[in-house]
Write a structure and sequence with these properties.
Blueprint: E1 2-6, E2 9-13, H1 15-26, H2 30-53, E3 58-64, E4 67-72, H3 80-106, H4 112-129, H5 137-150, H6 152-180, H7 185-203, H8 205-223, E5 228-234, H9 239-243, E6 251-257, E7 263-268, H10 269-279
Parallel strand pairs: 2-3, 5-6
Antiparallel strand pairs: 1-2, 3-4, 6-7
Length: 297
């Protein structure tokens, strides 16, 4: 549900967040629900402000039970440094609000009940979003770290699986807390949504991967120069297996060896990506190098 627009960015409430506000209303603590709404909104606006300062376009914000999603130009996830800055801005904003709230408390400008909930809500949102699991902020930082070592698709799969794990764990923990009487349905709702969105992120990994491959050409054209990375491969290796180890912000050169471990030649990342899109992932990389004429052997 669209609720407004701030500086050209549309703000939407997810049905799960509406259900959470409804639970606060039924319980007679709507004030706490509105505080939770404000805390999550401030968290997402911190992402937006940071992204815009880095030149990243943001279209809209969707508020979820465990935080929110800022829909940005997809290229930000292919730049690990930018993704880290944008992701870290959310939890940092909540910790800033904790500092402001603590200062107000120390000066007596405080409402004991709602003020204490304000601090707890900010700490919970910050701590929850720091979990190393997609789509949470900690997961985006973790993916940026892994992508430089394992490649973008593998990093997305791994961190999305952690998101599914934490989602299931939170649902089970929330159910136990509900039975024992020390937590409410909001914990279970947050767990279900975390599992659902992590599953969606995992399913989008191949799409992100293709975008990442296509983005490399733009990066090189824009920067003029990129750090290089050397790989060694057998000429029988599939193109699809080679590109899986390509990492962001690096341009790869692949040295090829035949079955007798003899040097056959070198192919660039650009050649491999072009062949991947035109010929498919099952083509052996050795086919990109013309065979040596018998008289030249």
């Amino acid at each position: 549900m669209k609720i407004g627009r701030v500086s050209g960015v549309e703000i939407h409430l997810n049905n799960g967040f509406l259900a959470l506000l409804g639970l606060f209303f039924v319980a007679g603590v709507l004030g706490k629900g509105l505080i939770a709404f404000a805390v999550v909104l401030f968290h997402e606006l911190a992402h937006v402000v940071t992204a815009r300062r880095l030149g990243v376009y943001v279209s809209d914000i969707e508020l979820l039970p465990f935080g929110g999603v800022s829909r940005m130009d997809g290229e930000v996830i292919f730049n690990p440094a930018r993704e880290v800055y944008v992701a870290a801005a959310g939890p940092a904003s909540n910790l800033l609000l904790v500092g402001v709230g603590t200062t107000l408390k120390n000066y007596g400008l405080w409402e004991d009940n709602l003020g204490q909930f304000f601090l707890q809500c900010n700490l919970m949102v910050a701590a929850f979003n720091l979990l190393p699991a997609l789509p949470l902020d900690g997961g985006r930082v973790f993916r940026a770290y892994l992508a430089r070592r394992t490649g973008f698709r593998e990093a997305t799969y791994r961190v999305a699986q952690w998101g599914q794990f934490w989602g299931a764990a939170i649902v089970l923990g929330g159910a136990a807390g509900l039975v024992l009487g020390f937590s409410g349905l909001d914990i279970i709702i947050a767990g279900f949504f975390l599992f659902y969105v992590a599953t969606r992120e995992k399913s989008l990994a191949p799409y992100y991967f293709i975008r990442h491959m296509a983005q490399k050409k733009k990066e090189l054209i824009s920067a003029g120069v990129l750090p290089g990375e050397q790989l060694v491969s057998l000429d029988s290796t599939r193109l699809g297996d080679i590109v899986r180890v390509f990492v962001p912000r690096r341009f790869h050169m692949v040295f090829l060896l035949d079955r007798n471990w003899q040097y056959r030649g070198v192919v660039s990342e650009n050649q491999i990506i072009d062949a991947l899109f035109s010929q498919g992932p099952d083509v052996p990389v050795g086919s990109l190098i013309p065979p040596v004429p018998p008289e030249d052997r």
